[in-house]
Amino acid sequence: MLYRALAKAGGLALAAFLYLAASIVAAEPAMLDSAVVLDVQPNRCIALHRGQDCYQKLTVSWQTPEVGDYCLQVLDGPGVLQCWQGLRQGQMKLEFADSKAWNFELVEQGKIRSLAEAELELVWVYKRTKKISTGWRLF
Fold this sequence. Notes:
There is one protein chain. The chain is of the alpha+beta class. It is built from two helices and six strands. The chain has helices at residues 2-8, 12-32; strands spanning 37-41, 44-49, 54-75, 79-98, 102-108, 114-126. Strands 1, 2, 3, 4, 5 and 6 form a six-stranded mixed beta sheet that branches. A hairpin with a 3-residue loop joins strand 3 (54-75) and strand 4 (79-98). Helix 1 (2-8) runs antiparallel to helix 2 (12-32). The longest helix has 21 residues, at 12-32.
């Protein structure tokens, strides 16, 4: 009924868009059952000052709907961390020590396409360093 009212008002294109959008949203939950999950815990590392290395023990876990050969890697970082063969899920523990954020990626072994991504965010307690006075102040 809403679609008819919009079409009569000259909104035929809008009515078509709303109809398609409703169909896509209705079909979405079926796709969520086969989602690949990649999780980094904790997902935030806190350093005292910007630019300092942050130290954190991490647990990275993943899960896929199908058994396969998968690798966990870090983009713009150390590269491949670990690979698993013939599994649907995996977990690894590692000690993080870096001054920049890491973007983790789960890929199927031998393929380039990313299946899932997760980020370890870096935050600082003090974002700016205080300026130290170098001269004497007379007044």
